[in-house]
Write a structure and sequence with these properties.
This protein is mostly beta strands. 0% of the residues lie in helices and 53% in strands. The chain is built from no helices and 11 strands. It has strands at residues 3-7, 11-12, 18-25, 35-41, 48-54, 59-61, 69-74, 79-84, 93-101, 104-107, 111-115. Strand 5 and strand 6 (59-61) form a beta hairpin.
């Protein structure tokens, strides 16, 4: 079974870049047809899909975040990462990494990121 674990700083200052990594175990990020996403949930709000990197390395981003978001991967470490630039307090949220493969759906436990000076 695929397991995902988010890691990264819990506190980021405004205007800086938020960087998170998702370490995957129990499966390879290059396995065909897997999609690896970042999703966040601001306090008191619903889930927001941010973007995805597919098994072949192709990426797609939410239009509302596209200008500030980059998702990359390190196949040697079986990890994929999120970078969100020019953060503001509105980017404070629990950030989740997610894997989808057909009907299967896996989630990390989530990591709280607070944007504050």
């Amino acid at each position: 079974q695929v397991q995902l674990q988010e890691s990264g700083p819990g506190l980021v200052k405004p205007s800086q870049t938020l960087s998170l990594t998702c370490t995957v175990s129990g499966g390879s990020i290059t396995t065909s047809y897997y999609a690896w996403s970042w999703i966040r949930q601001p306090p008191g709000k619903g889930l927001e899909w941010m973007g995805v990197i597919a098994y072949d390395g192709s990426t797609y981003y939410s239009p509302s975040l596209k200008s500030r978001t980059s998702i990359s991967r390190d196949t040697s470490k079986n990890q994929f990462s999120l970078q969100l630039s020019s953060v503001t307090p509105e980017d404070t949220a629990v950030y989740y990494c997610n894997a989808e493969w057909g009907a299967w759906d896996y989630w990390g436990q989530g990591t709280q990121v607070t944007v504050s000076s």
